[in-house]
Amino acid sequence: MKFAKLDSNLLQHLHKEEINEIYRWDINCIDQLPDYMKLWYREALKVYKDMEDLMSKEGKSYRVQYAIEAMKQQSQVFFVEAKWFHENYIPIMEEYMPIALLSCGYLQLAIASFVGMEDSITKETFNRAVNEPKIIRASNIICRLMSDIVGHKVEQERGHVSSAVECYMKQYGVSMQEAYDELNKEINDAWKDINEEFLKPTAAPTSALIRVLNLAKVIDLLYKGEDAYTQVGDSAKTSITALLIDSIPI
Q: What pLDDT digit, counting tens, does each position of 100-150 carry?
């Protein structure tokens, strides 16, 4: 047990050092990273540099900084999840969800998707997004909980941080099916929140709202009853074929 604890502490230290280097967002830091991260880090910096070059031509390079900060934030919560995993720690839902809603990547993806959009997307749009308005939080909830419900069994078999399912079961002493039922209620409430955002006046451009809605729709396609993101099943294949190959002309 003592050796296991030492090993866990060492891994946590290494993860923290890696996250610190990522947070600096500087190619000169690459030599401080382990070999398995160098390729990813180099390519990540290149992607955002290319984005910045393109946006600079339109006078919108400021947009890329929001995307970079979102990526840094996501990297930080990965460290928290790694720490939980190495300590075999199962957090309560109130502790799990703030971290898991960031680690699912949908806040970062939403902000990055705004970068190349039209002029109606302003600094205010990005400032609202980073503060996670109701529609973005709802999209994050749909992404995280639908993914956790269909993927947690396989993830636990291969070694993974606890999902919302394990957290809910332990905290409330309920069965797996009862946890599914409660988490599905939260998913349904999140869809209601998205609908509400479209029905009431808002300062956010409609194009930004539609982008977030479409991200939620992707999750509904890929994680409805199965993990079709990890292993594409017949349902997802049929839907994608109908949309892109056998689509009905409008």
A: 999 999 999 999 999 999 999 999 999 999 999 999 999 999 999 999 999
What's the whole-model pTM score? 0.85
pLDDT tens figures, 163-218 = 999 999 999 999 999 999 999 999 999 999 999 999 987 888 999 999 999 999 99
Q: Can you list the domains of the chain with their CATH numbers? A: 1-89 (no CATH), 91-250 (1.10.600.10)
pLDDT of residue 210: 95
Tell me the C-alpha distance between 85 and 173, whole Å. Answer: 21
